[in-house]
Amino acid sequence: MGEVTPVLETERLRLRGRSLEDFPFFRALWADPVVTRYIGDQPLTEEQTWAKFLRAMGHWLALGFGYWAIEHKSSGALMGEAGFGEFKREMKPLIRGEPEAGWVFLPAFHGKGYAAEAVGAMLAWGDAYFDGTRMSCIIEPENTASIRLAERFGFRETSRGAYNGDELIVYHRPV
């Protein structure tokens, strides 16, 4: 599709595309054990982060959707990322052909309402862009903060599954 990442703004946040200059932030984000404790259970290497970083950029170019870098408007600090993917995960149950929502923030930004602000903006964009397509997300059962956030925005548990040895709850957001 070749689309450029749209910029979304909320009261405190700017959701934007990423640039190569952002890589050191994403390297630090995905190397943080608090960030990864519910996402793969261990920090990512620089190589793994680079692949994830490029995959996020490629989603926008190939599919017209993807993940935004989340920036604090007043300070310009990067805080995390949120968006939609089509990851073709080898998991049971399969969740393909529907946008998979996800979000992650540095621990310094947890518990301050930033995730709800970002997820609300991305879902509003997704509702318009995907035009009635059901959305999914996968969350480890111990990640109660993400479960509460997903449920707040209308995601409901539809099944349990596993991915890379981790138990997951599969959520769907009805259209």
Characterization of the model:
There is one protein chain. By secondary structure, this protein is an alpha+beta fold. Helices cover 33% and strands 27% of the residues. It has 5 helices and 8 strands. The chain has a 5-stranded antiparallel β-sheet with strand order 1-2-3-4-5, sandwiched between helices. It has a 3-stranded antiparallel β-sheet with strand order 6-8-7, covered by helices on one side. The mean pLDDT is 94.
Main features:
globular, 27% strand, five-stranded antiparallel β-sheet
Write a short abstract of this structure.
Helices cover 33% and strands 27% of the residues. It has 175 residues and is an alpha+beta fold. The protein has a five-stranded antiparallel sheet with strand order 1-2-3-4-5, sandwiched between helices. A three-stranded antiparallel sheet has the order 6-8-7, covered by helices on one side.
Mean of pLDDT: 94
Anisotropy-based shape? globular
Terminal Cα separation, in Å? 24 Å
Poorly predicted tracts of residues: none
